[in-house]
Protein 1
Amino acid sequence: MPTATFDLGAVPFNPDGWGPLESTADDSNVPFAPFSRSDKLGRIADWTRNFNNPTRSKNPADSAFDFTSDASFPSFADDDSSFRLVDGKPPPRPKFGPKWRFQRQLQLPQRRDEEVEAKKREAEKERARRDRHYQNRSNPSNHRRELFKSSVDIQPEWNMHEQIPFSTFTKLSFTVSEPEDLLLCGAVESYDRSHDRIAPKNERRLERFKNRNFFKVTTTDDPVIRRLANEDKATVFATDAILSTLMCAPRSVYSWDIVVQRVGNKLFFDKRDGSQLDLLSVHETSQEPLPEAKDDINSAHSLSVEASYINQNFSQQVLIRDGKKVTFDEPNPFANEGEEVASVGYRYRRWKLDNDMYLVARCEVHSVVDVNNQRSFLTLNALNEFDPKYSGVDWRQKLETQRGAVLATELKNNANKLAKWTAQALLASADMMKLGYVSRIHPRDHFNHVILAVVGYKPKDFAAQINLNPTNMWGIVKSIVDICMKLNEGKYVLVKDPSKPQIRIYEVPADAFENDYVEEPIPEEEQVQPNADGAADDADGVEAAVASTNDGEDKKVEDQA
């Protein structure tokens, strides 16, 4: 019986290392599985597998060494599918050409935070303002024309003599000498310096002074001016309110009127009863229009009445009301005996306009304060905030930290009013002008107000800050005086055009603006208009009027410049 034998075959010996020799190794039928040194060694062969799968190789021996389905031996296919190229280079920039020039660039979406929303609201507000401005310029029957109606109804029998554009006023210049005080009347109280420490955090309620009387007397109704006119103290007579309106005319937007009376060789500038000069304008130079309805609390008329009421009460609240007053040469010329009047002093001052022409004006000061044992006069005025939405600046938040921004906003929206206050302070030679910041307790409550701050300025410094030139102010007055002195004796009215930057001078009947005079307005398109040549002659007449009397002053003004 033969014995079973098992032939191991030849096992070559490798003296240089482990494994078969390179010359005898035949691994063509042995699959290779990649591995690294960190991988654990697994099985060499698996004879327990099911080799009946038709998808596998026909040779069972090959299947015993096939570990592609084993998770411990990753295959090449797995490596290819899991391989990712990491490239940090930026993609190549396309060449600029016709096909790339107008392609839409994708942008990341912006953050919709408060800043972005605020910018969008500001852009929409600016767009709406431009649209309104365009409509106002293109449509003559717009709401601004209705809002800026003429302050006086032009009658068909009125004859227009002059039409002066504001562009001629900017070139005028005239220098006057220091004024002379002819008389001081009235009595003033001292200023309470504790109001300088008012801030939005410790605001003060605005009080009401119903028992104190305020007087807005025109020129010809002033007994002192009548007396000075009889004494031939001057040729031209006016008040500081009228002169400041003329001096700041190029900054005005609303219509206003001044009555001019030529009596003999004298000239009187008056205001009508209930004239717009008695009220303070609000947001006159602002780009944002005010509501049209007259009964609206934020309409132009309602705000003017409110501002005048605030201004009067403020001028009395900031005083030391202890009964002690600084009296002048004569008592208040408009008050009855025993009547309680507001603290005001009237300085009747005279300026020399020409060799034989003098101007006398009644100027007001509201308070007095002692500085280094010297008496200094003050003027007191108040700016009022009615709704922060119109100005875009909330005083309660900005007054302490950004007071300059608040003042700049007011200079933009109320340029004419601030310029007139400054001109009145200069005419009265006030040493200081106090500006109060008064705001409503609530934007819809126009009866109750609070004082948020009080700031003082020197009139000359403030005039330079707002670009108000005194020589130009007097140049405007001198030119209008020269034009009016050439008119015949009679009554005239000087009207600011409601829609154009110009002034018109009409000759009116002697009984015009009296109680028994009934005015019948006529449409503006039916009013008499001067021809182009007449307007040009009037403009030349304004410049010639100043040039003829200002030859000796031109050199002086140039040297000062």
Protein 2
Amino acid sequence: MHGRPRNPSKPVDEAASAAKAEKLRLLQSQFLSYHHQKIYTKEAVELSAKLVELNPECYTAWNYRKFAVENNLTQAGSDPSSVKSILDEELRVVERALRQNFKSYGAWYHRKWVLSKGHSSMEKELRLLEELQRSDSRNFHAWSYRRFIAALMKRSEEDELNYTTNMIEATISNYSAWHNRSVLLSNLLKKNVERFSKKDEVLIEEFELVGQALFTDPDDRSSWFYHRWLLQHTVKNDAPLLVSSWPAHGSDIILSGDRSPESCAFLRLDKFQFPSGRFPLILYFSQAVEGVNSSTVAIASRFNSNDTLIWNPLSTNSSRAAQVWVTWLNFPDSDPHSFEENHIKVTVGHCQGIISSSGFHYSNISDFVFKVCVQPVKTEFVEGVVIEKISWIDENFLLCEPHSVESNLLALLDHSSVKDEHETAATIWQANIIAEEIQNFRELSDCKLGKLTLARLLTAHDALFGSRKFPNSEEVLRLYKELMKLDPSHSQYYKDEYNLVLLEQVMSRRESVLSHCFHYSDLTSLRRGYPICLRLHKLSLSRVGSIDKLLWVQMLDLSHNELKSIEGLEALQLLSHLSLSKNKLASFSALEPLKHLKSLKVLDISHNEIGAHAIDTTRYLCSSPLSHSVGSEWGQDKNGIDVVSFTNYWEAIFVLKGLNLTQLDVAGNAISDEKFNLFLAKILPKLKWVDGVQLD
């Protein structure tokens, strides 16, 4: 574990093993008899002591001893000496069991239970721990128990930090000591203890300490893990930040039903087919937060009362904390002859209440302004419109020329990040630490962990200096490619990290984004003016990243990749067309983020692996009908779905029901057949096209 070689097991003496097993069976048989009859005599208790010393993992025996202790304490009454004698004997039994098996969960838990009764010496416990840790200084049970004892003794976390220093200096490969150090240091920094009030000085000292360990033994993984933890704390802001929003600052939004070509100069919401005059406002934070509501976010608008707006977290779990939050703004239909402009100002954080999962408050006041133009709806363009099939073939997509791209989209690409406009310059100490660590790790880049850490450092360096400058991305991509070859057993992890850097590189420069923007133009179609399609296809993507830079996307092509999950896409509330064809999606569980995309009309999940696997390893991500987390939605009307279909396709129901899909492609999946297609028509009442075939 952690790079430490295992000692080969010794040959087993079969005769001795058989004798021990027979003895254990006899003890257990007699013990269970006492336990079932609730016999707590001296003989019965001594027999249970022999059992736990022979097999410390026998939880039933430890629980029996708890009942026995309670019984004996009741008989002892208030006699202090009798109580102390009973508890001391119990501690001796636990100690003998621990010497038999130092990693016994049951023994450690039982010792904590005994100490909770009081009447025990904490100093004696610390001495025992030090003795036991001399035989195995890395044992995490002992370190966990030490934290328990330190809390009972009210020992200062600073004293405990010094103890970890001594243990690390004795053995730099002591992973548990490094881990305990990270726990203690986090608490000390959060509490702003006097000697730890200056985070920069503390982290600089820690980098020096772990650096000595790394250069002493580069093959030991314990110090590498601690270095990674330090790096995260160096670049991470404790308090949450508003990273991006939609609409972005300076955006021009037109609410219109007009499909005429001349109105395409703006990003037009009529293409999303939202209810008249209704569109989303999305906030994307640097980490999961809760407390986003009308008190903490103020919206200045003539048509929307701040108190009536409801903010919802976009999360695939039931937590009230989420990285992305959305509300819906409403505008009435305008006068038929007007083209009225409405300026909307959004202010985030003017009142405290937005708080991260780790307990830090949103401390910056961020505001942005955008303009909404309510254009008269020309119903003649809408009445009788035939819903046409979208074909994702390459011939139907024409690369956007920069001069032909909507001016509003160019503004979005330049100003989509709220963080850009309020970017706090990297402090000198952060920049110095990262630069020095990069230089150090270039000397260790011959080894696997050295390359990985250098890639992380270069990525952190780029992140420090703004979201639109990534000077080290090419070197980072090269390092991950080398790691895939050097360490094939972890190639999927390196590939995921490679993809995140690649997408960040693609989405952070206007020229790069435009090289992936296409106009959809099916020559057989009567309709014109489809939204711009962002084509991130054929990139071998195994993960989707840079979600904060995709909030504007309406039409997205992620086909011909290697995606097994679409985590993060729930934030794309404007998305109306999505292709996930020819990926590695193994089940509808992997598509759970689609539940939140109420604007989605066209979905292509053809040629994946849905239904091909007998065991769905992603199913735990999706609540089943047997889970309480889904709530009452499973008891709602099943729209005529028979019991067999409901049982066989419950995941599809859970993900797809409630969507407004008009086109769905599922061909090429194991689950796809005529029966499944008929089932889709039942749960998706607006569906007009399935696998290229128009429904009656």
